[in-house]
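Progress note, project year one: complex with T5A.
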Amino acid sequence: MIKKGLLVSFEGIEGSGKGTQINLLTAVLKENKIPCQVIREPGTTSLGKQIREILLHRQSHICIMSELLLFLAARKQLIEEKLVPELSHRQVIILDRYTDSTLAYQGTALPLELIESLHEKAEIRLKADLTFYLKIDYQLSLKRQKQRNEKQDFFEQKKQDYFNAVLNNYQKIADREPERFKVIEADQDLTSVHQQVLKIWQKYEKNF
Ligand code: T5A
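Model obtained:
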């Protein structure tokens, strides 16, 4: 594949504002006539939607390795069915979560090296070119979730210790890959967070 498109992912815990900031960035790209589309992980392909339902609204116990493999199955399908063909066009593909989510979440129970080696074995090698990590703490995540007043899915029901471990894993990625993985202080108002995203995007856009 000759890759002409750009993969931009958004990461962060529940309520960090990924969906909100993706909408704001997409509006700017459209205004500037830059072709773009948003893809949610898991959940964009038909298989991904089914896997999302199994994982987020599970009816019975799923062991951690099966959980990991299901996320990988959804990702592999997404790459083959959607990302590879779409990236052959010049456009920005915005991913609402991608591989870093697996490292952060499933990495709370499994070694990061194991998760990376399974990605490699499954030939999931397509990496995000740029990632916005919207950093908030657990208390704020909880507050924003409560404001929405929606029924909680499997992950949202997890406790503070779990989310602290997720945040710790995101920080490890930030320390390891500062060029790609941009940390945004997301505990500020929508506009300030959007301005931080735009500042990074505008620098990056010059190479696109
Ligand atoms: N998962 C996923 C894994 O475990 N492994 C994996 O490999 C992958 C891919 C998916 C779940 O699956 C797990 C992680 C997740 O638990 P999801 O539905 O895709 O779940 O993701 P969530 O993070 O749960 O989505 P949310 O909608 O909760 O969070 P967002 O998109 O980050 O937040 P958003 O934009 O919807 O905002 C939440 C609320 O906060 C307000 C918004 O208006 C909204 O009400 N808000 C702000 N308020 C004040 N100031 C700001 N700056 C605000 N920004 C947003």
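The longest strand covers residues 6-11.
The two ends are 18 Å apart (CA to CA).
No further modelling is planned for this target in the current period.
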